[in-house]
What does this fold into?
Amino acid sequence: MTQKTFTIVGGGPVGSLLAILLARHGYKVGLYEGRPDSRTTNIYQGKSINIALSDRGWTSLEKIGISAEAKARAIPMYCRAIHDVDGELSEIPYGQEGNAIWSVSRGGINEQLLDIGDDEPNITTHFQHRLTDIDFESATTMFSVKDDRELVVKADFAFGADGANSKVRRSAHSFPRFSYSQTYMPECYIELNIPANQDGSHKLDKNALHIWPRKDFMLIALPNPDGTFTCTLFLAYSGELSFESLKERSAVEAFFEANFADAMGYLEDPIETFMDRTAAPLYLVHVFPWSFNNKVGLIGDAAHAIVPYYGQGMNCGFEDCAELNSLISKLDHDWDRIFPAYENARKPNGDAIAELAVRNFREMSDLSGDPSFQLQKKIEAKFSERYPELWTPLYSMVTFSPEIPYSEALRVGDEQNAVMQTIMALPGIEEDWDKPYVMDQLHELADAAFGARG
Ligand SMILES: Cc1cc2nc3c(=O)[nH]c(=O)nc-3n(C[C@H](O)[C@H](O)[C@H](O)COP(=O)(O)OP(=O)(O)OC[C@H]3O[C@@H](n4cnc5c(N)ncnc54)[C@H](O)[C@@H]3O)c2cc1C
It folds into this structure.
């Protein structure tokens, strides 16, 4: 039997992981990346330089046998460190003791995956090859190469792993019955930096994800192994307090002083950086189908660009790869069945995490506000600790429970919320929340809603 060939467009984290798994299944893979090789050139990737990887990402990497190398360079973050407007610090654990999300360098994990790919004889990687066109019937792709040459590549199958602005996906607009939507979020973001101390140590607790929640906007900081923190400021694009309205230096200074006074001692040139940088947009993309003629598929951000408020975009892309990995074995390399099974399995989960991520902006940005919201979370945490078989908090389902699909987490989370509305409406709940009758009533309601499911 002749060896089947794949073209993968996009050598980001998801494309490079997909290349490895296909090569290990015996396919010959051409991986085509538009940018130069970041391992030999210093290029800004245009995305957050570090990201949080959680159990879904690790489990997916483990299934493909490559988590140990990546985890060795990651920093565990066990809690959210909340910096309130007066500079008071409090901590909210991410889950049960020992539960952590992990700060990893986006470029670093990408390069680790490319390195592993270099050792796979079935993978050939081509940098500075930018996709210009694709034929969805034959999986033939056209690239513009760095010296302006045009290259036509024939393969049996192709995948678009070319990110949120995917050219493969944009080319599919002429495909019959292709559904597409793109929605901009009100917020944009810029990155800021907290440098290391002189001795290379971190200026803030490195085992926490730091959040300065200010309701309509927020600043977050994730640690890097070199002692620095990469910070992201999420702020409205337009409106009274926004990137558009904050143009004068004095207004920017007043904004930082009023909202991030305690961070001002740590941040590196926040005012200059704010004024120099163009804020990047955040948007959601929903499409269907994710595969075309059982020849070409979409994966990662190309299939489901989501907002970063749950820290799940890359986790979800890695899960797409793990799903494909198991379908290839299960369906015995029959791509007429693998493509439909893959999109049917993953599309509902892509939609669910997109929805959850949008909702999570409020959860993060209002962490030190809205007492009733905080009280609800406190009651849920206590109940879940006492009755773990009846109640896993939504955050834990999404982040620490890879066995629960995103779509199931969304559904159960909504049911839990409905139950909690009854509890939150109890007279005197603010004073009584810790009393046994509240737990008893919640137990009764939860048992009726979830108990029978075992
Ligand atoms: C501010 C921010 C914070 C984030 N935080 C988190 C987080 O904490 N946790 C998490 O899991 N996710 C996070 N994400 C999401 C995460 O970065 C993405 O989900 C992830 O990078 C997607 O990987 P990908 O390989 O699908 O796409 P990308 O990383 O976008 O890679 C696509 C690749 O395709 C290449 N390419 C594009 N067009 C072409 C073309 N025409 N021809 C050839 N190559 C092309 C690009 O150069 C790129 O290398 C965050 C995103 C942002 C913006």
User: Anything to note?
Assistant: Residues 9-15, 32-35, 47-48, 51-52, 106, 130-131, 161-164, 167, 189, 232, 300-301, 308, 311-315, 317 surround flavin-adenine dinucleotide (CB under 6 Å).
